[in-house]
Amino acid sequence: MKKIGYWLLPLTWMGVLFYSSSTPYKEQNIKPFMKTNLDLSFLEPYLQWVSFTYHHTQVSISNLGVEGLIEFFIRKGAHLFSFFLLCLLVYIAIHQTTKMKHATQLILSFCLAISYGAIDEIHQHFTPNRTPYVGDVLVDGVGALLAVVLLFLISTLRSTKK
């Protein structure tokens, strides 16, 4: 029964991600809040150089405004952090409930996190004002990969101390 408890954390986090993906973009849009409550105009000279294309949209101050640019990075940072955390939670569950080799645990944790990222993007296809995009799965993958690197480094440090 204790082993099931370890899986409740990643499953709960998946539920949070599912709920977030079920929320239309208009309900998650933080640009109006930033425009009303924050004066971010001081950032314009520092962010003027930022310009690239993401999902057929130019990401720049001239196209999105300061608030839109900041929101873009907050949203992508949320992807990265969410799947970093998911990978860590899945790893803990696997580590505590199986006797697999450490490398297998890391690879499986990464693969499960990425798979959920892909499923999450497919789910967004059915959510109003949301669009699936493979680029977001790649951002999710970077978050999961960072978790794997951290876990690998911790494991390596522990083994060298022994």
Topology:
Layout: H1 2-22, H2 25-28, H3 31-37, H4 44-47, E1 51-54, E2 57-60, H5 61-97, H6 102-124, H7 134-161
Antiparallel strand pairs: 1-2
Keywords: Membrane, Transmembrane, Transmembrane helix
InterPro entries: Phosphotransbutyrylase, VanZ-like
Pfam family, one: VanZ
Describe this structure in words.
InterPro entries: Phosphotransbutyrylase, VanZ-like. Pfam families: VanZ. The chain crosses the membrane at residues 77-94, 106-126, 138-157. The structure is a single chain. The chain is globular. The two termini are 32 Å apart. The model has no long low-confidence stretch (mean pLDDT 93). It has 162 residues and is mainly alpha-helical. It has helices spanning 2-22, 25-28, 31-37, 44-47, 61-97, 102-124, 134-161, and strands at residues 51-54, 57-60. Helix 5 (61-97) packs across helix 6 (102-124).
Primary descriptors:
single chain; 162 residues; mainly alpha; 7 helices; transmembrane; Phosphotransbutyrylase; membrane
What count of domains describes the coordinates? 1
Q: Outline, from the CA principal axes?
A: globular
Strand proportion: under 5%
Rg is 19 Å
What structural class should be given to the helix and strand makeup? Answer: mainly alpha
Largest sheet: 2 strands, antiparallel
Detail the poorly predicted runs.
none
The number of E-state strands comes to 2
Termini Cα gap: 32 Å
Strand order of the largest sheet: 1-2
Order of helices and strands: HHHHEEHHH
Helix count? 7
Q: Kindly state the mean pLDDT as a whole number?
A: 93
Helix fraction bin: over 70%
